[in-house]
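Fig. S4 source data, part A: sequence.
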Amino acid sequence: MSRFTRHLFAVAAVVVLGQLALVSFPATTSDRAACDAVQRWASRYAHARPTLDDLVRVDPARRIAIFNAIGPDARADLWRTQLTRAAGHAGLTIERRHLLREGSHLATPALYSGDLAAKRAFDAFWQRADRHFRSAEDRRIWFELGGNMPTAEPSVLALRRWLPAFVAAAQSSPRCRCSVAAFNECPYPLICLVGPCQPLVFGCGRAGSERCDGLCSP
């Protein structure tokens, strides 16, 4: 167990107890307080270098909060790891494997610092890559840190399996969970709409490089 993981477990109980204490307040006050609690919790890791395996141990809302708290180098490391692992998945076409590796090279610290040149380069790359990752399950590898590895064939059964949980998580979390500007980030038939949630600078959209400013909604 890494040092990061031990620290993660040590503070998780404190956060949960704090959130339980908020139940009696009105919804807007409770949501705001819950967001503040998660932000304070995530700020502990501002100088940490969590691994992808560390982050998948926590729920998506805290995962995104930590992603925003850490530095650009650590953000880039996480997405490079995810895309590189995906490229090694069995059953991929050569072209899809090549695109995953190319995407990992473009997931640079500059991209997660808001550098416009790095963003334009990734945008141009995505115009070529988008059509090769069309199933909902496959797109998770690009839009969700800790998401599934891509499949050799689109899986309708897999979509049905995780879609209800995706909707429930989005509706229960006061933090924004998707990027309104990102096309097809939410699983069909959901779309990303501006909602009553707290925006974050990074963590949504393609390779987590875009602003989180909406919720996946019917």
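Fig. S4 source data, part B ends here. The chain has two domains: 3-71, 73-217.
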